[in-house]
């Protein structure tokens, strides 16, 4: 099971890649635990893992 995350970032547009990588870096530098689908969803992953990560992200 993944540890609790502060933020879950998912994106679907190729032109958003640079922004979300920058955003992940900024949030990580501030001490947040960030789950980014670009690096954390391996090919053919069980999508329950995604649901678990999204559910564990802080809502405050």
Written description of the protein model:
With 60 residues, this protein is mainly alpha-helical. The chain has one domain. The chain has three helices and two strands. Strands 1-2 form a two-stranded parallel sheet. Helix 1 links the parallel strand 1 and strand 2. The chain is flat, with a radius of gyration of 11 Å.
Note the main attributes of this structure:
single chain; 60 residues; mainly alpha; two-stranded parallel sheet; 43% helix; 10% strand; flat
| Strands side by side in the biggest sheet | 1-2
Strand content: 5-15%
Helix content: 40-55%
The biggest beta sheet reads: 2 strands, parallel
Rounded to an integer, what's the Rg over CA atoms? 11 Å
Element layout with pairings:
Elements: E1 7-9, H1 17-29, E2 34-36, H2 37-40, H3 48-56
Parallel strand pairs: 1-2
Describe the structure concisely.
With 60 residues, the protein is mainly alpha-helical. Helix content is 43%, strand content 10%.
């Amino acid at each position: 099971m993944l540890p609790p995350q502060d933020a879950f970032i998912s994106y679907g547009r190729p032109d958003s890649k640079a922004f979300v990588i920058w955003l992940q870096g900024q949030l990580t530098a501030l001490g947040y635990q960030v789950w980014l689908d670009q690096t954390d969803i391996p090919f053919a992953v069980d999508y329950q893992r995604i649901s678990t990560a999204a559910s564990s992200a802080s809502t405050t």
